[in-house]
């Protein structure tokens, strides 16, 4: 018995396995829908700017350079502070919801509002991407690091494959409608992180405290050493 009213005893391998599943499910989903929200803006805003606002290619490139500069500045100055003070989950959700606001602004008929929406999308992407990278890293150890990070990257690349197909299909109907789809995708990414926050924080705590509450069971000569170290987990 563990001495607690309701508890389970997990080995370090159990914790690594659960963290792998959680990391891929939570951050892989956030990365996938994050790409579905970001890449259509990259691929289709130029078409919108030329068709709807009559902007020349040179000026479209300047607008993307402006948005990219905002993305770099956010990654360098804003995202680290948000992650430190709010945590990766809340910061990631904020970044995704910022993308939602930016995508909705892109649909506006005023050029200034649409450009602000483009910059806002890039700022939100910077925060949400940093959140995915930092949050998934918190669930890794030497045993599961390659599997977890590769799984998240695979889902992100899946989003990159799906984005052009979805963007082309929707934009063939109406270019501005595409940004509504972008907003929905970003909303799914942020909501996923918030709805799984309790589960995520619990596993992050276990992953960070492995070995602090342990008891030795069995004979090291007959069992794997890592499996003999058990963590008491209240349920």
Order of helices and strands: EHHHHHHHHE
CATH fold-level topology: Growth Hormone, Chain: A
Q: How large is the share of residues in beta strands?
A: under 5%
What shape does the CA trace take? elongated
- Known CATH architecture: Up-down Bundle
**Residue runs with pLDDT of under 50 for 5 or more positions:** 1-7, 211-235
H/I helix tally: 8
Percent range for helical residues?
Answer: over 70%
CATH superfamily: MFS general substrate transporter like domains
Text of the CATH class: Mainly Alpha
Query: How many domain regions?
Result: 1
Provide a descriptive summary of the structure in words.
The protein has 235 residues and is mainly alpha-helical. It has a single domain (19-195), classed as Growth Hormone, Chain: A, CATH 1.20.1250. It is 77% helix and 4% strand. It has 8 helices and 2 strands, in the order βααααααααβ. The chain has a two-stranded antiparallel ribbon. α1 packs antiparallel against α2, α1 (12-52) packs antiparallel against α6 and α1 crosses α7 (197-208). The longest helix is centred in the first third of the chain and has 41 residues, at 12-52. It is elongated. The model is unreliable at 1-7 and 211-235 (pLDDT under 50).
């Amino acid at each position: 018995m563990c001495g607690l009213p309701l508890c389970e005893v997990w080995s370090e391998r159990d914790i690594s396995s659960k963290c792998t599943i959680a990391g891929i499910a939570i951050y892989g989903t956030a990365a996938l829908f994050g790409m579905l929200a970001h890449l259509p803006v990259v691929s289709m805003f130029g078409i919108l700017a030329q068709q709807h606002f009559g902007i020349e290619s040179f000026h479209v490139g300047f607008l993307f350079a402006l948005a990219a500069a905002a993305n770099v500045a956010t990654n360098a100055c804003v995202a680290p502070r948000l992650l430190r003070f709010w945590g990766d989950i809340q910061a990631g959700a904020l970044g995704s919801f910022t993308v939602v606001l930016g995508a909705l602004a892109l649909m506006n008929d005023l050029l200034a509002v649409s450009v602000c929406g483009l910059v806002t999308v890039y700022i939100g992407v910077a925060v949400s991407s940093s959140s995915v990278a930092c949050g998934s890293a918190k669930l890794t150890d030497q045993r599961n690091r390659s599997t977890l990070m590769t799984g998240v990257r695979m889902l992100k690349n899946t989003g990159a494959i799906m984005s052009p197909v979805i963007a082309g299909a929707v934009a063939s109907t109406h270019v501005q409608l595409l940004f509504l789809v972008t907003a929905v995708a970003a909303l799914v990414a942020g909501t996923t992180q918030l709805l799984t926050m309790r589960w995520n924080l619990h596993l992050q705590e276990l992953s960070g405290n492995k070995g602090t509450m342990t008891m030795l069971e069995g004979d090291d000569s007959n069992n794997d050493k890592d499996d003999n170290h058990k963590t008491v987990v209240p349920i």
